[in-house]
Amino acid sequence: MKKEPEQAEVNIGLIGHVDHGKTSITHALSGKWTDTHSEELKRGISIRLGYADAVFYKCPTCKGAEAYTTKETCPSCGKKAKKLRKVSFVDAPGHETLMTTMLSGAALMHGAILVIAANEFCPQPRTKEHLMALKLSGIKNIIVAQNKIDLVDKKKAMENYNQIENFLKEFDYTTEIIPTAAHFGTNMDLLIEAIEKHIPSPKVDSKDAVKMYVARSFDINKPGSKPKELVGGVLGGTIIQGKIKEGDTLELSPGINNQKTKIKATELNIAEGKIKEATPGGLISIRTLLDPNLTKNDQMKGNIIGKIGTLAEATAEIKMKINYFKREITDINPEVRQDETIVLSVGTATTIGNIISIKKDELEVALKVPITVEKNQNVAVSKKDGTRWRLIAYGTIQ
Ligand code: ZN
Fold it and tell me: What residues form DSSP beta bridges with 363?
C-alpha cells in the first residue's frame, strides 16, 4: 500500500529586504527554488508567497552544528542521520507593494528567519516593515541570518552585526544571529541548529476547535469539463489549531455573500498528494462541494474555516484601539485622521476602510468588504503616503 504523504509540522517565514537572500536561503535549506507556479498550484495549495518543504536530520555521532543536515546521511561522517521533523518555508515577497501579501503570509507563520545582507546598512526599509508585521502578528520565535558574509571583511561584518543587534533591540527581540553565505551553502548547519533551538512546532491539541486561515481559493476544473466531471471549489491555507478529517462538515466565515456557509471537506491535499487528516503546519487544500465559480481566482481568500458554531459572523464596521508605531520606525507621521481611508489586514484578509470616528486611541472604521474578526485580535493598519501604502500601526479589536 502506498504510504500517505507527510505534512510539515511548522511554517517558517523567510522575511527581510528584497535581494538580501531569502530565496537563496530557502534553496540552500530545501534544495528547491520557491515557486508560485509549480505542480502545487494545480492541487490548489500554493499561496502567492513562494514556499518549499524540507526535512531536518541530526547525526547521532557528530557533535555540534556539524550534526545538523537536510540529508538522510551525515555529510561529515557518512552515517545514517536521525530524522527530526519536516518544515515548510514561506518566502515573503520583499517588494513594498506586496506588503498585504506579506501580512497575509505572517498570519500563517509560526516563526521566521529574518534575512539581513551583511554588505548593506541595517535596517533597510522593508527589513523594518517585515519585522513590524511579525511583531503585530504575535510571532515571537525568530532567528537572524546575516547573509552574504562572503562579500565583506571582518571589520565590516562586525559593524553590521552591531547594527542588527541594535535594530532587534528596538523591537524587543533577542535572538541568535547566524552568519551565512547562502549561495555557497555556508553555515546552513548552524542555521538548522538555531531553527531547531528557537522555532518549535506548534502543539497539536485535538481538543482545540479547528481554525484555518484561507490564503487562496481555486477552481481546479479544466475549461470545457463535462458537468459530471466537475469537482467542487478548493480552499487552501494553513490550520492554526485543531485538525480536519476527510468528510468533516465545517463552517466558513465571512462565507458566501458574507453569510456563514457550511462546507464539507470531501478531500484533503498537501503538495505530495492526498491525506486523510490535516493538522497545523504546512499548506493544505480542502476540496469542497462549493460551486467552483465561487472559489476561483482567490475569491475566498481571507475567510476562516472553523468548527460549526464557533466562528463569528462577518462585520462591516469595527471598533479598535490603535497603537501607532514610532515615527523613527515608520519614517512618516503614523497618525490617521477622521474620514481617512486605511487598509486593514487581519489574518489572511485585507480590506479597505473609512475612519468614521476617532475618540482618543479608539477608532471606528466602516469597511468596504466585511471581515470576520475576534475580540482582542490584532489588525495591521496601513495608510497612504503618496502612491504607496505604508504600515503605520496595529489595532486591537474591541
Ligand atoms: Zn556524522
Answer: 320, 358
CA 178 – CA 316 distance, rounded (Å): 45
Whether residue 65 has pLDDT greater than 70: yes
Please tell me whether residue 360 adopts helix, strand or coil conformation: coil
Sign of the four-CA dihedral 272, 277, 280, 285: positive
The answer on pLDDT for 127 being more than 90 is no
Q: Give 31 Cα–ligand 1 centroid separation in angstroms.
A: 20
Grid coordinates belonging to 396: 486591537
Ligand 1 centroid – CA 79 distance (Å): 6
pTM exceeding the 0.70 threshold for the entire prediction: yes
**216 close to 48: Cβ distance less than 8 angstroms:** yes
Show the CA angle centred on residue 153, arms to residues 148 and 157, nearest 5°: 60
CATH number 2.40.30.10 given to 314-397? yes
Q: Are 109 and 47 in contact (CB under 8 A)?
A: no
CATH of 211-306, one of 2.60.40.10, 1.20.272.10, 1.50.40.10, 2.40.30.10: 2.40.30.10
Neighbours of 170 (CB within 10 A): 13
Ligand 1 (ion): which residues have CB within 5 A? 59, 61-62, 74, 76-77
Instruction: Answer whether CATH 3.40.190.10 is correct for domain 11-198.
Output: no
Tell me how far the alpha carbon of residue 68 lies from the centroid of ligand 1, in angstroms. 9
User: Ligand 1 centre and the CA of 81: distance in Å?
Assistant: 7
CA-based max dimension of the chain: 68
